Amino acid sequence: MRILIGGDINPVKRDLDYFIQGKSNTIFGNTSEIINSSDLIIANLETPLIKLESPINKSGPIHGVPQEAISAIKNSGINYLNLSNNHILDHGYNGLESTIKTLETYGIDYGGAGMDAGKSSEAKKLIIKNQRIAILSYCEHEFSVSRNNYPGANGLDVIDFLDKIKELKKDNFYTILLFHGGKEHYMLPTPNQKKLCEFFIKYGADIVICQHSHISGVIDELDSKYIVYGQGNFVFDPYPKSSDWLYKGLLIELNIIENQLDKISYHPIMHNSFKDNRKLGINLMKDKDKHPFLSNIQSVSREYIENPEMVYKSWEQLSAKNKNLFFSIFNGSGKILRKINQYVPYLNLKYNKKSKTILKNIITCETHLEMARTILEYDIDN
Fold it and tell me: pLDDT digit string (tens) for 165-187?
């Protein structure tokens, strides 16, 4: 059987009407060729499908589109949507319920979120052409995760993973693990992300695919199994942003024989607005764009594999660049003050060595961090 996996889908203002009208040819372009020849087509739905707006109190952007936007996705042939991401609860429990009912009405399978913790954490088991396929979905703990058995996305839980993977391997399921996490706009894994994904592979996942970063990242191979640290966007038109990686993505094709991976292929895609802002949707990259795009991923991946220290050094450098921004956030500064502090770090006067030591203890000690999370969640929700 043939599986095709894409990254984030989110209708934006400039193409929303085409989603609603079901114009999949405009939105998905010539990717329909490989979609139509696949048996299972997976993507991440980076927005709830809503009747009415009911935005939650959170930091960061809030996504939400009318239920009818599912029409183009349905017509494209995509038949499985991952909901375990940091936006699926942007419009609260009502928004998630509306999303689930819409997918069920349109006959699109889904996983990674549900109206209770048990449902959200379920592994999706599929038997297609006599091949046994399972999908596990996890996301980092932001504002979308199911807490205390309430509706939400399936938050990262390694104990849950070990319980699930044990049963799946017992029944000989080829297991795809979708992890919605990592640093946005960053090709490399964070040190903890690397450790986590290698753990997933070691204990039974057959392929780990990281989404959320909006950039196609490095690809690692461990014992004939793969970790893809970022696919980039599927359909999430960023125009007029200038960062070219936001316009590009990677479709991953898996050929499965006897519940094992026979072949993996990569199909680069590009938003048409990258070269012509009058155009919408995506298409497969032409050779003149495809070869340098894949060559860059291969080059960075080789360096990553050959130089293990690269992950730690690069992460330290990136963290150092964001130091002033983070102290602004810890201080409760708004956007303007955060921007000022990035270039004129006045908060260095407030955060002396003693205060930084206390802050470090809260963040690095699991119990202190858990208490800090609980206090902030309670305060925000009440």
Answer: 999 999 999 999 999 999 999 99
Rounded Cα distance, 244 and 114, in Å:
34
DSSP β-ladder status, 65-66 and 49-50: parallel
Q: Are residues 363 and 300 in the same domain?
A: no
Q: How many domains does the chain have?
A: 2
Structural tokens at position 292? 């340098």
Q: Let me know whether 228 and 326 are in one domain.
A: no
Domain boundary among 268, 290, 312: 312
Q: Which tokens in the block code for residue 106?
A: 């349109």
| Summary mean pLDDT of the chain | 94
Residues 166 and 151 in one domain: yes
Phi-psi region of 52 (alpha: psi -120 to 50; beta: other; left: phi over 0): beta
Q: DSSP per residue over 254-285, as a string?
A: EEEETTEEEEEEEEEEEEGGGT-TT--SEEEP
Band the pLDDT of 57: cuts 50, 70, 90. Answer: confident
